[in-house]
Amino acid sequence: MNETINDLLTPEARQRLEAQVTRAADKDRALRRFLNGVPLAKGLIRTALDTALRSDPFALLAEGWRTSKDIRTFYQGERAQLGEPVVVKLAAHDIERDLTPEVVIHVGAERRFPLRLALTLCGAFEGVELSILDRDMIAVGSGRCHLSLKLRVAGRTLESLTLGKLTLPGEHRLTPALPLYS
Amino acid sequence: MQVGFRQALGLILCMGALMDGSALASPRTTVAQVPADKTDPCSPPAIRRAAAQQTAPALTGCRYEAVAAPVTRFFMTLPVARKTEDEAPMGTIIGQNPQAGQPLKPGGRLVLSVSTGRAPKMEDGTSVGSAGETSNSAGSVSTQSVPERPDTPIPQAEPPATPSSQASEVPPPALPADKTPPAPIENAARPQETTPLRDMPTHIPWLWIAAVVALVLFAGLAGASARKPRRIRGRGGLAPNVSLRLTPGAARLKVRGSLVSGRKGRS
């Protein structure tokens, strides 16, 4: 079940994503000059994108649960003992999280080229249960999730790539456990 | 580096403009360029002048070593040296035959009386105080050899003029008797006329040569630095490591109503 964003991307979606990232990198004049001076760096963009997308989408979206005041209030009302897990059932909700890409080039020193492109990871959840242990979210389970990735430039959505509709099985472990904000 | 090259070129041109030719040229080292002393009869120009006039040069009072070579060169004959006891310094010519100004053709016989530096002795063993008695007489003889010039070639082209001088004359072995040398002055293309020093260039612009060498070195260094490739960022021995970093921002949670729909309780 531990699938990454890279695993959820279809080949077509990956190609469109690479095209958008390459176009955004080409708009950076300094980066464009650098890439023209280093022919090998062009081929490295694809590898870098694959590496960057190898992250757990639920770990990214769990930030929305961590900051949720409702979940925190519920957990405090349960007055759970130490070592005693609490399972909370969530209503249908959406979580979005922006991912700002930047090209980092190491040649002796590190130089960063922020791209004028924003990746927004969207998750639409229905009937999701959260397992909380000692103020730490440890698992997500038994629900439905619709993941998508949006490409936005200056607040305008260019592409909306569907990652897939996932039916969460019994439990999806969050590793490491994510603590709730107090 | 181009600026330095231009500055060096300008400096060299300024040096050439400010310095006159005599400063840039090396000092004249040849004998021919030294102004001849017209009053010195022992000098080679005076001997050459006498040879051109086919007259005997005035060699009395001169050093034999100094005049032997010019006389040999310009008169095509070796002077016959007679060692004569005299109070004059050793090696000084105290007499000559023929006398100065007398006709002397090239290849002719020239007898020089050379002082031995000792006063002449009489038969009773006493030395003669005056050297003038034997200085101009060809008959005064001495059996002692000249100590400072033991290997001086003293050839003679003609038999001795007087029998009395045979005892003191050194037989000249150099020139063959059947050789008739050409006239020294009339034949201008004679190879013996010029010396090796005269064939050398009179002005050797050492400073200009050094400046040109420095200019070439500067040009070489400038060219080498220009050919040196400029270091481009990202190009070199290190392979660039390109990565794409996704910086997550704040999460936005959208829910209609309350997020917590139900309590499943403690497990």
Automatic annotation (TrEMBL), chain A:
This is Uncharacterized protein.
From TrEMBL, chain B:
Residues 127-146 have a biased composition (Polar residues). Residues 1-25 form the signal peptide. Residues 119-197 are annotated as: Disordered. Keywords: Membrane, Signal, Transmembrane, Transmembrane helix. Pfam families: PASTA. Residues 152-162, 170-184 have a biased composition (Pro residues). Residues 50-116 form the PASTA domain. The chain crosses the membrane at residues 206-226. Gene3D superfamilies: 3.30.10.20. This is PASTA domain-containing protein.
